[in-house]
Specification:
- The chain has helices at 9-17, 20-23, 38-49, 60-70, 84-92, 102-107, 162-175, 177-189, 199-208, 218-225, 230-238, 267-277, 280-289, 304-309, 319-324, 326-336; strands at residues 2-3, 26-31, 52-57, 78-82, 118-130, 213-217, 239-242, 252-260, 293-294.
- By secondary structure, it is of the alpha+beta class.
- α8 (177-189) packs across α16 (326-336) and α9 crosses α11 (230-238).
- Bound molecules: fe (ii) ion.
Length: 339
């Protein structure tokens, strides 16, 4: 974990003045995002508002723990992180403060915000398959992954990972626990190997013929599509991508997002920062930096990989309700042996 040095010169100068006014010109940001393009995003906020950003980067779960341990003395104003499950965990730990903002309410669709945390970009969890081995029409829906005809063909990352937990939470929300558990058991019965690695490892395994079907977040696919390495692009030539459940509830969506912290010393600046993240300019940076989609309607991104992935129907289930079934999702995965 490290404090970013690049933007804090102004912040340190302001802090050393010691006046209340100078204090307000600073924002302490805890971020689990580590993208180069985010520098330009933060510079834009400082340019517009004169508020310097002092950034602490860390791993998702470490940041949550740190804020909890710092308690009332925490310097953190805003937490940015990825995955609804983690944002929900921060909410459940009581780390966020409620925010009322006309700008956020107008800009961010209702299903992508809660009372105290907000989504700023979305990613979809899609099905990928080995071209020539599996036909796309065999894997149209998440439910197909549990179909016995895919026995020995499914690769996956761990069932404890937030991406799979959030997907499972959405399946419970849509279909109920009994069907969700049946699905989990069916997928386990189709495993080509015990769960291991990240999403990119599953994509490579499908391309290498170790298995034929897997799940991946879209930005991992976009990253390989845009890679400088010929082998990455070759990998992508071997796999097909399916938008799941297009006749049903739509592809499962997850988010990156954030909120104002309960003990934020610079609350006003923190709210302004969240509002800035919903601006057209910030939405473009925010999404392009990690090959995600903006949450604000009508924002144009210039990203060839996203253009190639094309349009799809996204599940419009409220992100907040994923949280409700998170614990249940883990219990069901454990019971099904999806570890
Ligand atoms: Fe990820």
């Amino acid at each position: 974990m490290k404090w970013s040095r690049s933007l804090c010169t102004l912040a340190l100068a302001a802090a050393s003045l010691g006046s209340a006014q100078a204090q307000e010109k600073l924002l302490n940001l805890y971020s689990a995002r580590h993208y180069q393009t985010d520098e330009a995003l933060y510079d834009g906020f400082t340019r517009q508002t004169g508020i310097a950003i002092k950034r602490l980067e860390g791993k998702e779960d470490e940041l949550l723990e740190r804020i909890r341990n710092e308690g009332a003395n925490s310097p953190a104003d805003v937490l940015l992180t990825v995955d609804a499950a983690r944002l929900a965990a921060a909410h459940e730990m009581g780390l966020f403060a409620p925010v009322q903002s006309k700008i956020l309410d107008t800009r961010i669709p209702a299903h992508l915000r809660t009372t105290d945390w907000f989504s700023f970009s979305t990613r979809a969890r899609v099905i990928i398959y080995a071209k020539g081995v599996v036909k796309p029409e065999e894997v149209r829906n998440y439910s197909d992954l549990a179909d016995p005809r895919l026995k020995g063909k499914v690769c996956t990352r761990s069932g404890s990972h937030p991406y799979n937990l959030s997907l499972m939470a959405s399946i419970i929300a849509h279909q109920g626990e009994a069907k969700a558990e049946q699905w989990a058991k069916g997928v386990v019965a189709n495993f080509a190997r015990p769960p291991k690695g990240g999403d990119t490892d599953q994509i490579r395994a499908v391309a290498a013929g170790e298995c034929a079907v897997a799940l991946s977040n879209t930005y991992y696919l976009a990253r390989l599509m845009r890679s400088d390495k010929a082998e990455d692009r070759k990998t992508m030539e071997k796999v097909g991508v399916v938008w799941p459940d297009q006749q049903g509830s739509g592809a499962h969506i997850n988010v990156s997002g954030g909120g104002v912290l309960k003990n934020a010393p610079h609350r006003e600046a923190a709210v302004r920062f969240l509002e800035y993240l919903s601006s057209d300019e910030a939405q473009r940076y925010f999404a392009d930096g990690n090959n995600e989609w903006p949450v604000v309607a009508g924002v144009k991104v210039a990203n060839p990989a996203l253009a190639e992935l094309g349009k799809f129907k996204a599940d419009s289930m409220p992100v907040g309700s994923l949280a409700m079934y998170r614990a249940k999702a883990q219990i069901i995965f454990d019971r099904a042996g999806f570890r």
